[in-house]
Design goal:
Elements lengths: L20 E2 L20 E6 L7 E4 H5 L4 E8 L4 E12 H7 L8 E6 L4 E5 H4 L5 E6 L2 E2 L9 E3 L12 E7 L37
Parallel strand pairs: 1-5, 2-11
Antiparallel strand pairs: 2-3, 4-5, 5-8, 6-7, 6-11, 8-9, 8-10
The structure holds ligand MTE and molybdenum atom (MO).
């Protein structure tokens, strides 16, 4: 068959990192059960190496009263599907950094969720203006299975770096692996570089296992 009889390949979507496919709808994906929200005991804590050496915390009303913002971002699951073009509303991570400043030598954060799920990030990634503690997607409050009342969205990282049901942010003076990073996934998780698995890590990409 001649070259001219072949269909041209479909144009690739510039929003899709290598190896990802867009999927319609919004599947829910997580390890373990969906936690039940308990408004009376819920809080969001910032602890670890804070500038004041004190822990900061907000109850649900206090968190709800924080200044809010909206960002547009895609979710890239390492299992190779992407949910494109969501509008996330919530509290910018940079607002937490202002209200609960880290000590000068903080280099990383661990974001903690219900049941001990965690994800580590470089401070610069957490401080990115697009990183958001989201309470709403496309104008609607998150459902329980998608992280109600609040989940992290980190646009430039695979989605496992965005815990649902966030409860705390720990400021760290050295890097430490989170839940999936300890279980074979890449410490940095940049989808544009296809940093999926820890065996791909170069020296300096993460702490020793
Ligand atoms: N607490 C918690 N957050 C989590 C996970 C999890 O297992 N527990 N899974 C992550 C992964 S791998 C993905 S792809 C996204 C999926 O988000 P969604 O269920 O809203 O699509 O949540 C992330 N956040
Ligand atoms: Mo994922």
């Amino acid at each position: 068959m001649g070259q001219s009889e072949q269909e041209p390949p479909p144009p690739s979507d510039p929003r899709l990192p290598p190896g990802q496919r867009a999927r319609r709808g919004w599947p829910a994906l997580h390890y373990g059960p969906v936690p039940r929200f308990k408004p009376l005991t819920w809080d969001l804590q910032v602890f670890g190496a804070t500038a004041s050496a004190e822990k900061h915390s907000w109850d649900f009303d206090g968190f709800t009263a924080l200044p809010r913002t909206t960002v547009r971002a895609d979710l890239h699951c390492v299992t190779k599907f992407s949910v494109l073009d969501s509008e996330w509303t919530g509290v910018s991570a940079s607002v937490l950094l202002e209200l609960a400043p880290p000590a000068e030598d903080v280099s990383h954060v661990m974001v903690w969720a219900e049941y001990g799920y965690s994800a580590n990030l470089r401070l610069a990634d957490f401080a990115d203006p697009a990183t958001i503690l989201a309470t709403h997607r496309n104008g609607e409050a998150l459902t329980a299975e998608h992280g109600f009342p609040v989940r992290l969205v980190v646009p430039g990282r695979y989605a496992w770096k965005g815990p649902k049901w966030v409860r705390a942010v720990e400021y760290m003076r050295a890097d430490r692996r989170g839940f999936w990073e300890e279980r074979g996934y890449h410490n940095l998780a940049d989808p544009w570089q296809e940093q999926r698995y820890s065996h791909q890590e170069e020296p300096g990409d993460g702490p020793l296992r």
